[in-house]
Design brief:
The chain is mostly helical. About 45% of the residues lie in helices and about 10% in strands. The protein has 20 helices and 11 strands.
Length: about 475
């Protein structure tokens, strides 16, 4: 049987980074095995829908390079992949469970259910539907059940859990898992408005879509015994389950915005490369078995396996992600990056700058930054001639220093005669300028950088001088000498 997996988001918000990882693992697993990855929209909870959420989620997935073989927006095909279009189907299957004795009618009001939970809380019992005392077809009898149904009394349909039987299943990540039947709730399958719950719709769709592997977040593990029971009640073969670990904050709490960005669009807007984010997210919970950390798209597909997904929660290291984005920045073609950076330079008010010059600047400074957009700020002294003001402390460190002025004048005069395109000539000029004032080379290079860039640190100084050119350097040196 060929592999068929699905990613099934709910349109209740924008795409979370954890959801991206779930989608990614499904995608990588399918592609690794030459299978099919399906997108299914699980919108049965109509009270929590967020307008535009599903469009945003699909756009974020596309930005990250996670694509689907079947589903909404795949070739314009909405097909059978949106649950709100399939409510009649779920009701038919729900009634089938009532007929074969695997589900039952319950007539409890919300007030009665609240009172039940308060009694359980007072007794120190975990909240769970009490089939033996509440109003359902077992306690009121078949005749009363039919009378209430005939009067259109409000009711739900619940799963009949076998209380004295353990539910067992194998998880590809967690191994053999056992839940005691007495701990499983009689889950609502069809709500009083006739809408299905997630559990019923999920199982019906996974079966009809011939899903072979359900790869989803660890938080769905407690729901799995209910799903196993549903498969058994229908007489269907259950798919293979794999529950991936949670993403954690640095303090190992569940990932939340108080520690940093959590929505995929936040990372995109911050300037992360999509392939860098995907590479990093793939490694959050999955160990390739080697020391390799940088993977291409195809390399991830070739290397991925469920066997190497960890059980323990994965800490989301924002600093490591920044580093990885920087590694991708270093590996990209500077000319391609220049085309991406030009709009940001224009937005900062710079006049037209030759793309080749922008590419040269990127090549020079990208070892010093993690994000492409940071080049405009980090190297502003290369793009424009209005330098950031020096702090009073830095200004004082170079003003009124006749020794430094002597060295600067020698360096400035030599610029007109030396080729600064040649590294050895630059070194020779710098050495001569320092010696003319009785300075050591290091004692001269630091203030020289400060005068030319108004920065204490920066890219290689020879490369900086080379890109500035003799004329622009001379103007800045003259400005210092005349101050």
């Amino acid at each position: 049987m060929s592999v068929r997996v699905r990613f099934a988001p709910s349109p209740t918000g924008f795409l979370h980074i954890g959801s991206l990882r779930t989608a990614l693992y499904n995608y990588l697993f399918a592609k690794h095995h030459g299978g099919v990855c399906i997108l299914r929209i699980e919108d049965t909870d109509r009270t929590r829908l967020v307008e535009g959420a599903i469009e945003e989620q699909i756009a974020s997935l596309a930005w990250a390079g996670v694509t689907f073989d079947e589903g909404p927006h795949v070739g314009g095909n909405h097909g059978p992949y949106t649950q709100s279009e399939r409510f009649d189907l779920y009701r038919t299957y729900g009634m089938q469970l009532v007929e074969n004795g695997s589900a039952y009618y319950a007539f409890d009001t919300s007030e009665e259910l609240d009172a039940m939970r308060l009694r359980q809380q007072a007794a120190g019992i975990a909240p769970k539907y009490d089939r033996s005392t509440m109003r359902n077809q077992f306690t009121v009898g078949d005749h009363e059940t039919q009378r209430l149904l005939g009067e259109n009394a409000q009711h739900v349909i619940r799963l009949k859990v076998p209380l004295h039987t353990d539910v067992r299943f194998h998880d590809e990540i967690r191994g053999d898992v056992v839940f005691a039947g007495r701990e499983i709730d009689d889950q609502i399958l069809l709500k009083s408005d006739g809408f299905p719950t997630y559990h019923l719709a999920n199982v019906v769709d996974d079966h009809l879509m011939e899903i072979t592997h359900v790869i989803r977040a660890e938080e769905w593990l407690p729901s799995t015994p209910k799903h196993v029971l549903l498969y058994e009640a229908f007489g269907w073969k259950a798919p293979t389950f794999a529950h991936v670990p949670l993403l954690l904050n640095p303090d190992r709490s569940k990932m939340s915005k108080r520690h940093g960005d959590v929505m995929v669009r936040d990372f995109a807007e911050k300037g992360f490369f999509p392939d860098a984010l995907v590479n990093f997210v793939a490694l959050c919970g999955w160990n390739p078995g080697t020391d390799t950390e940088i993977f291409s798209h195809n390399e991830l597909i070739q290397a991925f396996s469920l066997e190497r997904v960890n059980k323990a929660g994965a800490v989301f290291d924002y600093k490591k992600l920044d580093w990885m984005n920087g590694e991708y920045l270093k590996s990209r073609d500077p000319k391609e990056l220049a085309a991406e950076l030009l709009p940001a330079l224009t937005a900062r008010g710079y006049q037209y700058i030759e793309p080749d010059f922008v590419a040269d600047v990127i090549e020079l400074v990208r070892e010093r930054v993690h994000f492409l957009k940071d080049v405009t700020e980090f190297a502003d002294y290369l793009f424009g001639d209005v330098l950031s003001p020096l702090s009073s402390e830095l200004a004082a460190s170079i003003s009124g220093n006749d020794t430094l002025r002597t060295a600067v004048k020698t360096f400035r005069d030599g610029l007109n005669n030396a080729s600064i395109a040649d590294l050895e000539a630059f070194k020779g000029l710098s050495q001569s300028a320092a010696e003319s004032a009785g300075l050591k080379m290091g004692a001269f290079m630091k203030p020289l950088r400060l005068i030319l860039t108004h920065r204490e640190v920066g890219a290689d100084l020879f490369g900086t001088v080379h890109l500035l050119g003799a004329q622009r350097c001379s103007v800045r040196l003259d400005s210092f000498l005349s101050s």
